Amino acid sequence: MKRRWLLWLLFGVVPTAFVPTLLGQATMTTIRTNGPTSARINLVYLAEGYTTVQLPQFLVDVTNTMNKLLTIPPWSSYSNYFNVFAISVASVQSGSDHYTPTTNLVNTYFNSTFDSYGTQRLLTIPPNDRDGNYNDGYGKVVALLQQFVPEYDVAGLIVNDTVYGGSGGQYLLASVNSASGEIANHEIGHTFAKLGDEYSTAYPGYPDVEEPNTTTNATRGVKWNDWILPATLVPTPDVSSNYTVEGVFEGAHYHATGWYRPKHDCKMRTLGVAYCEVCAQELVLSYYNALRPIQAKSPAATNFFFGGPGTMAAFNIAILKPPTNSLAVQWFTNGVAVGFATTTNFAITAAQLAPGTTNEVKVVVHDATGYVRTDPTSKLWQTNIWRQFVMGAPAITNPRWTGTNFTLAVASVAGFNYVLEFKNTLTDPSWTAIQTNPGTGGSVALTNTGPVGSNRFYHVRVQP
User: Fold this and answer.
1) More confident residue, 165 or 203
2) N or C: which terminus of the chain has fewer CB atoms within 10 Å of its end residue's CB?
3) What is the assigned CATH class of domain 294-390?
4) 408 falls in which pLDDT band (50, 70, 90)?
């Protein structure tokens, strides 16, 4: 698992003597859908400690958990990026294991337990300090996810126990305590964006590894410096006049000194408050790490052929726009931005491109959200490029009559076909094909055989 040392709010476990019994087939319910699983961020919640008759309540609890998450920033600003699913699986008994203040062990499907690693409200599943068997906990989660939602992005367990507790790591856990919604919102910060705890209380043995919102660097070179105003002192005194600003505040990562956080308070420090700007930024970056804003493109091929000067090509992209802001779109031809080409559709003629060479049409999509100031790997940007070879007018040589036959030659490019066409008057609505020869890279001969009228007009069309 990604994180064994966890919060003051976490996971659950059960001893090996109480291996849960499968009571029936697991089922999946779609709670929220915004698109195909291949093109959305998929949140999956699994039932732990719900008996068969309690499983309808699990669906209610999942819906409440989802609503408490997707209605707070920055999640609310990207709510259409998410699908939400519930996997219902029954336990023999309800609740979770407890060891304090008294021991109370129950038979549940994922062997969840409070009191993990010496912390009463640390709720985990195996492998942990109570049960080291992966197959008693994590293994079952993996099997159900692979069965129902193999394209999941975040998975968590809702534990049917009213005692305050939870955890975040490879999977998040939250009990159904009255604060469970906020517990889940805190824990998903760990699971989805790898955010760290900003607590100052000591947790001996906790790994001293920095997260996006914790650091030992108390200088202007701190990784979130783009959020710090020039007038803000660094390190930042934790006084009321600084409560609303980003800075470098001492006390984080289970250390009272020597470790720093971005703001006086944050959801990663205190339940019921908002994510600070740095944590919100990391969450938004994680959204775009899981999906891309360009959902579809046309043409599907990235390399194709442009015919004669009058040929037109149409390009189109489908983008996933957040509900509260637009995505910026810009089209380019051969590296130059096209003025006013800022919609999802773009058209261009071959005459606008260089003939006899390969040209490039590019579209760049960018989420210019105010949630993000630092995007070192350009997660909020996506580019798609089409390359097309534009044929110039074929050079015709040696046109002549030989009896009733008209012949000519054209300089060809290998890989293209050369079609001799005619019309009897220039007002005729269409051309009639006579002969097609493949290009060889050299001269290609084309011939019109048979009788002709008093007038006939010829041209050569090039096609792939």
Assistant:
1) 165
2) C
3) mainly beta
4) confident
Identify the weakest region by mean pLDDT among 4-8, 38-42, 234-238, 334-338: 4-8
**Stretch 314-322: mean pLDDT, rounded?**
96
Task: Please list, in sequence order, all residues whose beta carbon lies within 8 angstroms of the beta carbon of residue 167, skipping any fewer than 6 positions away.
Answer: 6, 7, 9, 10, 11, 12, 116, 122, 123, 124, 173, 187
Instruction: Return phi, psi of residue 419, to 5°.
Output: -115, 120
Architecture of domain 396-463: Sandwich (2.60)
**Intervals of CATH 3.40.390.10 along the chain:** 10-193
Cβ contacts of 53 within 8 Å, gap of 6 or more? none
Q: What tokens does 431 get?
A: 């051309």
What is the model's pLDDT at position 392? 60
Taking the C-alpha atoms of residue 169 and residue 189, their distance in angstroms, rounded to an integer, is 9
Structure tokens at 199: 């607590």
Residue pointed to by tokens 């367990």: 157
For residue 19, give the nearest of 81, 108, 132 by alpha carbon. 108
Sign of CA dihedral 131, 136, 141, 143: positive
Predicted TM-score of the model (pTM):
0.81
Q: Residues of CATH 2.60.40.10 domain(s) within the chain?
A: 294-390
Residue 215 C-alpha from the chain's centroid: 26
Give residue 422's pLDDT: 78
464: amino acid identity, one letter? P
Mean pLDDT of the chain: 89
pLDDT tens digits along 319-349: 999 998 889 999 999 999 999 999 999 999 8
